[in-house]
Amino acid sequence: MGYEVASLAKLIEQFERMPSIGHKTAQRLAFYVLDMSEEQAKGFAKAILDAHEKIHRCAVCCNLSEDELCPICSKTDRDMSVVCVVEDPRDVIAIERTREFNGTYHVLNGVISPLNGIGPEELTIKELIARMGDGQIKEVIMATNPTVEGEATAMYVSRLLKPLGVATTRLAYGVPVGADLEYADEVTLLRALEGRQTI
Amino acid sequence: MGYEVASLAKLIEQFERMPSIGHKTAQRLAFYVLDMSEEQAKGFAKAILDAHEKIHRCAVCCNLSEDELCPICSKTDRDMSVVCVVEDPRDVIAIERTREFNGTYHVLNGVISPLNGIGPEELTIKELIARMGDGQIKEVIMATNPTVEGEATAMYVSRLLKPLGVATTRLAYGVPVGADLEYADEVTLLRALEGRQTI
Fold first, then answer.
1. Cβ contact (<8 Å) for A48 and B28?
2. How far apart are the C-alpha atoms of A148 and B162, rounded to whole Å?
3. Across the interface, which of A32, A46, A75 has its CB nearest the CB of B19?
4. Angstroms from A163 CA to nearest CA on chain B
């Protein structure tokens, strides 16, 4: 193309690398950044660097945190005897949105996936086992994703926890609320039937 | 929400302000930035600041440029006697994509829009008139958007240019290539009929 402004092209390229951003959107975002005021652009750049510098893993649950303990682990009103094990910090946000769960979390930081070369030692499983040490934890809820890898990881972790005398549970499978039975897949429907409850 | 990491929330907010980015996408982008390496994050922040610092307006055509003259105005093989007037730098990219136009551009930096408080003096119209000074320019192609404002701006500019003895033309209206006549709107079809050409 005859038209090439190097630093604009570079910015577009940066946005283009991001997930779910195509070339047109990257271009729109780059022009949005150009239209920003000097301060706004500096604020944006600072937010990126800040997030990178300040955020690390919570010493207890391995969730994202700016301090040594994440906001949830440092709260005294949370039920420390229940730990919900999730794959990713985003899953913590999702479960917190229910506003009903009052226990704590443990972020595995992935799932066991031999195809991608991720074994149990890549995850924060030893940190989870270490938390069982003082006998304060009574129940571990496995809330990994309902996928083959998530399932396998849940099985693996629960087998490690069993000898420690901790009850391990798994999120219920079934039809999602608001869905149409007609469009539910066979496996989900089968799990919903198997897990039927008296009303 | 119980879960709040300040610098992450700030980064999500920054992305959320951008056009066509909703909360979910903003969250995904912020996590993508967190997953970047130290260098990548610095590179991204630098690209934002660089674009802001280095890019300004070309002294001739008011297009975006890092140097005094934009890549198009500084090229000697472009036809300096034809100027294509567009609203926005993005329109230059669009027309350059045709690979057929070999003239130069003039970026108005908007359109006359009394509703939004944008008058002719907010645009780069005086810079365009100044370019007519040396009599080198023979034709001005008005390529503002085919909207009410774009149309009015094209009319306004062409009326200013007429006394200067410069031929002004307007992009042809008609049915877009590959479209279905059935779905073309009446106004476009009418314009296509009016502008019909012998084959």
1. no
2. 72
3. A32
4. 32
pLDDT of B130 reads 93
- Domain spans of chain B, in order of start: 6-54, 78-170
Top pLDDT among A137 and B181 is at A137
Which residue in chain B is spatially nearest to A37 when comparing CA positions? B52
Handedness of CA B57, B62, B65, B70 (dihedral sign): negative
Contact between chains at A96 and B2 (C-beta distance less than 8 A)? yes
Of A18, A33, A50, the CB nearest to B7: A50
Cβ atoms within 10 Å, residue A197: 6
| CATH architecture, domain defined by B78-170 | 3-Layer(aba) Sandwich (3.40)
Residue located via tokens 């959107």: A25
Left if phi > 0, otherwise alpha if psi is -120 to 50, otherwise beta: which for A62? left
The closest CB to that of A31, out of B2, B28, B90, belongs to B90
Tell me which residue in B18, B38, B41 faces A32 most closely, judged by beta carbons. Answer: B18
What pLDDT shows up at residue B2? 44
Entry pTM: 0.76
Q: What is the reported pLDDT for B191?
A: 85
Sort out which chain B residues have CB atoms less than 8 A from A34's CB and list them: 51-52, 55, 64
Check if the beta carbon of residue B189 is closer than 8 Å to that of residue B181: yes
Smallest Cα–Cα separation from A112: which of A158, A156, A161, A153? Answer: A153
Element (DSSP H or E) covering residue B141: strand B139-142
Q: Are A52 and B38 within 8 A, CB to CB?
A: yes
Q: B6-54: which CATH architecture?
A: Orthogonal Bundle (1.10)
ipTM comes to 0.77
Instruction: Report pLDDT digits (tens) over B81-138.
Output: 999 999 999 899 889 888 889 999 999 999 999 999 999 999 999 999 999 988 899 9
Compare all CA atoms of chain B with the CA of A9 and give the residue at the minimum distance: B51
What is the per-residue pLDDT across A97-152, written as a single tens digit (0 to 9) for each?
Answer: 888 899 999 999 999 999 999 999 999 999 999 999 888 999 999 999 999 999 99
